[in-house]
């Protein structure tokens, strides 16, 4: 288990917003520990690396993809330079997912990508659509960071909006690939020790999934409130979750939970407000 200083480096500095001033001292400390590249880039890379780790924990692959209890779970980066790969190595060093050690690769070979469990496509790679088409039935979770990624057949897309990293999911592409996103994490009751949920909006929630309090946050006694806005389709499924405020380590867990919520069907798409408070007690 990494010590506190290593966990501080895990998520790096976050671009301040009015919601973050309460974390000012902590952010200054993290800034001093961040890599020598720009603070904004370091923060974005570290948060995206944390997202990839959470996606790995929330995904179930076909048995043949990870045949042995100690088979490596491979996350490949397609395109881009080495800076992100180095951050990914540093962030996920020594970590496992259900006993599987994580292996990081930087690859451009289709054959190599087919043997991975997750491929992260860096933005603006011209051959991304060709690679997606070749991989979309290979049991590989395809994650990108380009506005057109989901339209090209990608499965999960990370986006930087107003200084915050958010994500959208294409459930049809995930189902077609034969992987199960979110189904290996049991849905706890609406309120569990460690978190309190408040939902305010136009539509009642039919199926509310509580967030899993991150072990890292528990070890650091990190607590606080994450405020979210859920963009809910007419059929009640959540299309997108936007983080309005809160610590990124807690926000990632909150987003994952709310993406699995189901609201009562309505006549049109709505925007619902959600507040999730994490307590170390």
Task: Give the number of DSSP strands.
Answer: 15
What global shape is seen?
globular
Strand order of the largest sheet: 3-4-2-5-6-7-8-13-12-15-10
For the record, what CATH class of the largest domain applies?
Alpha Beta
Beta fraction of the residues? 25-35%
Query: Which structural category do the helix and sheet elements fall into?
Result: alpha/beta
Rounded radius of gyration (Å): 18 Å
Describe the secondary-structure layout.
Layout: H1 4-11, H2 24-33, H3 39-57, E1 59-60, E2 73-78, H4 82-92, E3 96-97, E4 100-106, H5 110-114, E5 118-121, H6 128-135, E6 141-144, E7 156-161, E8 164-169, H7 171-177, E9 180-181, E10 195-200, E11 205-207, H8 215-219, E12 224-232, E13 238-245, H9 248-259, E14 262-263, E15 270-278
Parallel strand pairs: 2-4, 2-5, 5-6, 6-7
Antiparallel strand pairs: 1-9, 3-4, 7-8, 8-13, 10-15, 11-14, 12-13, 12-15
Helix pairs in contact: 3-4, 3-9
């Amino acid at each position: 288990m990494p010590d506190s200083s290593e966990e501080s480096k895990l998520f790096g500095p976050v671009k301040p917003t009015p919601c973050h001033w309460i974390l000012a001292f902590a952010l200054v400390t993290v800034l001093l520990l961040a890599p020598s590249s720009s603070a904004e880039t370091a923060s974005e890379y570290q948060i995206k690396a944390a997202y990839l780790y959470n996606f790995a924990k929330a995904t179930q692959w076909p048995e043949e993809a990870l045949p042995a209890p100690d088979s490596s779970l491979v996350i490949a980066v397609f395109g881009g330079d080495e800076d992100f790969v180095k951050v990914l190595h540093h962030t996920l060093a020594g970590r496992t997912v259900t006993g599987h050690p994580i292996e990081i690769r930087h690859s451009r070979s289709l054959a190599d990508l087919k043997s991975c469990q997750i491929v992260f496509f860096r933005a603006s790679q011209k051959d991304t659509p060709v690679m997606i088409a070749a991989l979309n039935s290979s049991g590989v979770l395809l994650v990108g960071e380009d506005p057109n990624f989901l339209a090209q057949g990608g499965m999960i897309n990370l986006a930087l909006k107003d200084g915050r990293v958010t994500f959208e999911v294409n459930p049809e592409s995930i189902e077609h690939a034969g992987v199960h996103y979110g189904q290996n994490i049991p849905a706890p009751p609406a309120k569990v020790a460690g978190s309190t949920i408040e939902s305010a909006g136009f539509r009642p929630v039919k199926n509310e999934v509580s967030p899993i309090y991150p072990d890292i946050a528990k070890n650091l006694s990190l607590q606080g409130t994450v405020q979210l806005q859920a963009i809910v389709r007419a059929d009640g499924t959540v299309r997108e979750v936007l983080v309005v405020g809160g610590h990124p380590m807690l926000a990632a867990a909150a987003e994952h939970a709310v993406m699995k919520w189901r609201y009562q069907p309505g006549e049109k798409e709505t925007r619902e407000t959600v507040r999730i408070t994490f307590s170390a007690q």
